[in-house]
Amino acid sequence: MPATVDTAAAEETLGFIQKTVKNFSWEKAAVLAGLLIACLVIIKVAVRLADRTMERAKLDRGVRTFLRSGLKVILWLVAVCVLLGYLGVPMTSLVAVISVLGIAVSLAIQGTLSNLAGGIMLLSARPFSAGDFVEAGGTSGSVDEVGLVYTKIQTVDNKTVYIPNGEISNQTIVNYTAADKRQVEIRFSASYDAPVETVKACIARVVGNHPKTFPSPEPLIRVCGYGDNAIEYLMRVWCATEDYWPVYYDLMEQVKAEFDRTGVEMTYPHVNVHMVK
User: Is 33 exposed, middle or buried (0-12, 13-18, 19+ CB in 10 A)?
Assistant: First the structure.
């Protein structure tokens, strides 16, 4: 039934267009030209006002381009409806035809529209920007480019990954470089025979001597658990975001060296067997 109604509306619209062409006159041509000029002026003014508004709102350039293009398409559709309405084409039939075409196009590009909406959200909310190291869409790496449809990420092993924005906007986004400092957390294990204060002093010396760790906030070095074969120690220290991995690996290596120098044993899983006669 809907298909029959749509076909009838299209046939009715074509009939009105043919009738209008037959009754066309120079007077109508002059009025149409005036309406067309008025529509062009209105579209130009509206687009300029929209540009100023989006510029004041400090929207991303990609979002501004997309919204500007969408606004122009809508205004031109309105202008066409005004011109055809003057010629006598029934608006109900014209709107029905445009609606059917719009539904068909939207169904055909549903996935692209979803990614486009996700891109607009990312560019507007700005959870990350180019150069940030993020985890998004199941991929970790540095953001190379944020587009309207895809986000380009460069992984640590130099692979370029294009992730659909619709997928990113529907998942959790972790931005590792949004803040200017990060906390390094490392757990160490030491023998039960080593005094707790001795172990904590070794770790504190390594942290204090490292040139890239921050003295404030004060580093945290505490016992965090008692295992079957060793006592577990938790160390938390702050550093600049760009120094996170160098500090992490330096502390891992230097604490082990300090333990060896002071005689603190880092035990491994073992079993003590007692023979009873």
Answer: exposed
